[in-house]
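note to self: dont lose this again. the chain is below, predicted strucutre after it. 324 aa total, dont forget to put it in the shared folder this time
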Amino acid sequence: MDPKVLLAIVLALPLCAQVKITQPGKDKISVEIDGKPFTDFYIGPQTAKPYLHPLRTADGKVVTRGFPMVTDIPGEAHDHPHHRGLWFTHGDVNGYDFWANEESQKGANKGKGTVVLEKVDKFVINKKSGTVSATFAWKTPSGETLLIESRKMTFYSDPQLRTIDFDITLSPQQEVRFGDTKEGMFAIRVAAALEEDQPKDITEPKRTGKIVNAQNKSSEKNVWGKRSEWLDYSGKIDGAAVGIAVFDHPSNPRYPTYWHVRAAGLLASNIFGLHDFERDPSRDASLTIRPGQPLRFRYRVIVHPGDVNTASIREAYESWAPTK
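---
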């Protein structure tokens, strides 16, 4: 091939990319898909843990709660300020709370840990996807590092779906114990209109949400604390049916995961909350790992139009689960 032609093709490749990833400053990484904003990844020193906010549908509807990042959205509950968009932490790591770890929150009998950016490793852009790789340190209040987190997030282009694959490895730097608590681990706080319950003191927006798991159980009452391969949270925003599905990969520790999911909008996968989920103080889901014993977690998140059935979430999971 003529070298000039080859050079022209190489130069044109970024223009063909459907996923655009930029870092406009030190505090965040921005993701656009098909020319429209999808989400921002907040990683700055002022954040107690990295998080994605907001998540949008392909046509721009925001499916995650704005608070505490945005405080003037009508009808949103201003509870649990640590519920920031989409995040990944745990409430008891060697006794430190990496979950409810906002500076404004008072710790309950334990210190608050922080997840600190070590480096943004790289961006990789392909024709239909884009990947962000970054490294974080889970630190105690004194600055001691308990875990190194290596995270890869892959974003996909699609006319109707917004899909993210997460590949997260936690490498202990010393003996680390994940305590048994429901407060964890891979989590999303959905928009007010997607919640199941209508708060008594809030009249709008109407709560339209429905929670469904892989066993076809629905509502918080039947899904909270239960094990399942996936979970979907859907409803209507501005009259349009939309939802968020989270998939637990078969290679994950203790698969299938338990779900800490609430009618008020929390959707969380957590394998470390057995005594809460089983309502049995004698049960203990704690886990101790040591240097050289990393934990790897893989999840897929799909922001979709329609409900769990019209979006074919079961079929989507069955297609993804065998991936290596």
